[in-house]
Amino acid sequence: MKSSADREAGRPKDASASFISMNYCMESSGTIEAPFPYDRARRCGILLHISSLPGRFGIGQLGKEAHSFLDFLSEAGQSIWQFLPLGPTESGLDHSPYMSNSAFAGNPLFISPGSLVEMGLLHGGDTNRVPAFSEYLVNFEQVEPYLWSIVKRAYRNFSLRSAPPSFRTFCDRHSFWLDDYALFMALKERYRQLAWNRWPAGIARRQPNSIDRARKELSGKIGFYRFVQWLFYTEWTRLKKRAEALGIRLFGDIPIYVAPDSADVWANQECFELDPETLEPRVVAGVPPDYFSKTGQRWGNPIYRWKVNGRPNERLYRWWRMRLSHMARLVHVLRIDHFRGFQAYWQVPASEPTAVKGKWVRGPGRYFFEQMRDALEGLEIVAEDLGSITRPVIRLREELGLAGMKVLIFAFGSDEKNSYLPHNFEHTNFYVYSGTHDNNTVVGWYMDPKVPESAKARLRKYANSDGSRIHRDFMRLSYGSVARAAILPMQDVLGFGSDCRMNTPSTSRGNWRWRLAKRFLTADVAADLHSEAEFYARIQNDEDTQKT
What we know:
Layout: H1 22-25, E1 43-47, H2 64-75, E2 80-82, H3 113-118, H4 140-159, H5 165-173, H6 175-190, H7 201-204, H8 208-217, H9 219-245, E3 249-255, H10 263-267, E4 283-287, E5 297-302, E6 307-308, E7 311-312, H11 314-330, E8 333-337, E9 344-349, E10 359-362, H12 366-371, E11 380-383, H13 391-400, E12 404-407, E13 430-433, H14 442-447, H15 453-463, H16 470-479, E14 485-489, H17 490-494, H18 523-535
Parallel strand pairs: 1-2, 1-14, 2-3, 3-8, 8-11, 12-13, 13-14
Antiparallel strand pairs: 4-5, 4-9, 6-7, 9-10
Helix pairs in contact: 5-6, 6-9
């Protein structure tokens, strides 16, 4: 979910440009102590989604492959592992991690068959005959049915014995989301994957008698989906402990919005702007027309109902507290995608085919984050503030003390005042990237004939480079900047081209499939990264870390 201005290097909009009148947007003035202090240590890390990890089962998973990558990061002097949202993905949405059917559940495809053998839920022979999966791409059409068959076999074995205390404890602790999610998934099966608002009225509207009856009738399926989530979180807990032992921070990501056909919307209908008759969204999220798109982007996510009868919607705020508290247990750092939507968001009538006839609506602003203070305790927040950002959005982020983002691939398409150029970084509270999952790789960008030669020439001059190792130029520009954290996509570490791109915004097929072959994770690559991180003072020990 990105503004089309976020896609490629080119002409970043002036940060002072505003789509809304300043009188309408301005937050309260004055000097306010930032409520969310941040780590001031200089760090570096790698962006690699879980699905892109190497391994024999067709997709990256949370077993030994993930633990091996943590070892690689440690050897490479990296103290941050950033990945994309962890939720379940769907084939109808091209398996985008940004359009999940749950804001809380984990992706079942990340459960390692090898771990199931270790847990005694599978026999060693159950994983001997593995299809010939590609080591370079995730073939979801092949991977998904295979892995579901493995997990279902594990559940059959699990059902033959008494549930361990850890399973019962997990179900109790996570009941605030797990009960609705498991029932939602069971109902999706019953109604052949129809959207929830097309289910029978009693179920769609969550009438108590209908819900109670469904829970009884579908108890077996509900048990299965609880089991799947227990497996995911068991593996995740083990991974997090290993990361902490190595001094590596897990850096997660959440979209500001949720998918319309999700357990979250079905279970919390009062929190969204839905038509009371059809239960369809009345208005949807998106971004307005800009330099890159004459019709803007109509994302289709339902808009939050921030107020009820002129007062804050307490149920919505309670849901957000649970969501953020949940993430605080999973990760150490969290990127909030489309942060600007908390200051003001683009609202489009659901009947409109494009985003042209939308309008800006003021968001909850600072009040929201003040209400989330307890939920965010111990969790560092990074605000995704790319694209066309107004002064009120910048002020909100800075008042809260949240880190912003700088993307170097955007830095060379204009003049020396470009805000993404390292000499224009206003302070250290930024995460700097060569590019993100939505960009081309830096080598792909440099080789792209559509990128103006003037931008490439500016980069060469800025980096004092002949362009022969452009990915190393981006590494050194990011590591050498004042930004307190420098993150490189793994593709840019290795100098891969456009064929290794993770996502192309505004395209609906063929994304999210790139995988890292195991042979590229070498000791030489780790040593080289470690050397650069050490030279630019980005290797941190516990005693080096200071808090505000």
